[in-house]
């Protein structure tokens, strides 16, 4: 079991989500940073869709009631295991009674805690992810609370070395090699969306030329950005149409919204672009106040970025396999 000793609001159990149900009005949900969640499972030798714990508000503290292997990925939350620091993107053996404490991040926004065998909550509609908007999935369909006990899967291995093992975080391993440029601005690669042509030439230019700032009015549904007002050549009502994570909508305020994992399944705001799947993790690790700019890319570049991401995950899985040994007995 994992016992929740302390938690802030909105932390939850997540996995890769529920694709294919948007036609029923059900959002995908799942980890907001799918790369960190899948990467944690890769480091442990788990299935890619095993459930993990997503922490987006702090502080938090956990107690393990039996031995297991634990991975921490995503944000650097100054984690401490029994008072000993544990870096981000690291794997450690834990023993029954060990306590893990997470503090507000010094880098990034969301931390993921995975255990070998996954967090073993019941699957609902094919997923163990918590659908906070609908009140189902995860642990009792809600955010984690103090006193919760979460079942975990079977332990198969231990770390080869007592200090454990780790990996280079994606901001160092994937192009662009850092989340931010020399001016502290993060780059998100986007492609044009269906209503791009509805916006004025000046607004089309501003979309990629301007530096945008992540608003405090941002959550798992979507990230609101502040910057120049994007205007259409003519304002007219639109029918609601399907939308997916990564879509950049522009409401009447002219301030873009990036739809994310818990976003609506349909909406009537015009779409000026969409962030490629390979860069969605960068959004998830961007706290309010982060500065970003959009960079147009083509289909070939988007496919190459996805291939690089998948190669990174495969490398984690292959390398980590050499850092584990079967448990005795």
TrEMBL record:
Keywords: ATP-binding, Hydrolase, Nucleotide-binding. Residues 23-312 form the Carboxyltransferase domain. Pfam families: CT_A_B. It comes from the Bacteria. The keyword Nucleotide-binding applies. GO terms for molecular function: ATP binding; hydrolase activity. This is Histidine kinase inhibitor antagonist. The gene is kipA_1.
